[in-house]
Structure formats: structure tokens, C-alpha cells
Amino acid sequence: MGGSGTPAMPGANLDVYIFSLFNENLKQGPEIERNFGLFDRDMRSVYNLNFPGKGTGKSWCIASSQASNSALQNALDWACGQGKADCSAIQPGQRCFQPDTLVSHASFAFNNYYQKNGATDDACSFGGTGIKVSTDPRLSKLQQVGRLPLLQLSRYGRRRMDC
């Protein structure tokens, strides 16, 4: 947790999949088959995990799909120019160029600027074309189009791309 990785892959961020939320005490078969859950049948935690019940506190800045193309283009030009957002990843042929839409490119640039400038409300204004959200837009995008995250190879194996 927290990017600590494993002894073989220190510092790696790992995806974790939960097989079962609850132990299944009535399941047939060997004892081991009944004990894959995170919680016992009486809701006691089986493992010492931190489930604070709070959000991550993270936020992102995306482009409004309701904004005019000219307003978005002006805001994108400002973010990548005077605003000094790193827009290299949304250039043709680069890893975040697709989808090749103004809203997608503006969202990438807006969020880059927003994160670099303290994630404040002012850093997500862009003349009224920016929207602050608390759900990672990369995950929303994947759910909407029904596809798996893009993966890239790294020295630690496959990792989700950050577009």
C-alpha cells in the first residue's frame, strides 16, 4: 500500500483484486476454501487493513463538454503556452494523443496545469471551461467506453498509463 511495492519490486504500484469480501463459513469443501474473505461472518476484519471510509481527497480538472470549441481552444492554448502545462503527451503520435478530441486534449492540459499549481479552484478556472471533479476521469472514460486500461511495459511489468 502507498507505493511500497514488494521485496522483488520495491516502489512499484500494484493492482490488488479482492476474491471474496466475506469468509464463507457454509461453503462445502476444505476449510481453506471457506477463508478467502476480508471479513468474518460477524463483520470482524480478518486482516489488518485500513478502511477509513473516506474518499481519497484527490481531485482533477477536466474540460467542460458544454464549453464552445473556441473557448476550449483558447484555454488549451493558454494552458500549454503561458500556463506552462506539459502538453507533450497530447501531441500527434504521443501516448495520450488518442482520443483526438478537443475536450480530451484540453482535459489533459487543464489537469496537468491544475495539479502543478496546487489543485486550487483558481487553477481549474480556464475562463469557465474547467470543471473540478473528485472521480478520476481516466477511470470514468474507461467505464464509458467499456474497455480495459491501456497498459505499458515498465521494468516492473505492465502498468496503467496516465492519460
From TrEMBL:
Enzyme class, first EC level, given as a word: hydrolase
GO biological process, one term: carbohydrate metabolic process
Taxonomic source organism: Gossypium lobatum
Keyword Secreted: no
Main location class: membrane
Homology family: Belongs to the glycosyl hydrolase 17 family.
A GO molecular-function annotation: glucan endo-1,3-beta-D-glucosidase activity
Catalytic activity entry: Hydrolysis of (1->3)-beta-D-glucosidic linkages in (1->3)-beta-D-glucans
InterPro entries for this protein: GH, Glyco_hydro_17, X8, X8_dom_prot
Residue intervals of the X8 domain: 59-140
SMART domains attached to this UniProt entry: X8
Protein name, per record: glucan endo-1,3-beta-D-glucosidase
Keywords: Cell membrane, Disulfide bond, Glycoprotein, Glycosidase, GPI-anchor, Hydrolase, Lipoprotein, Membrane, Signal
GO cellular component: plasma membrane; plasmodesma; side of membrane
Pfam families, sorted: Glyco_hydro_17, X8
E.C. numbers: 3.2.1.39
Coiled-coil portions: none
Localization of this protein: Cell membrane
Topological type in the membrane: Lipid-anchor; GPI-anchor
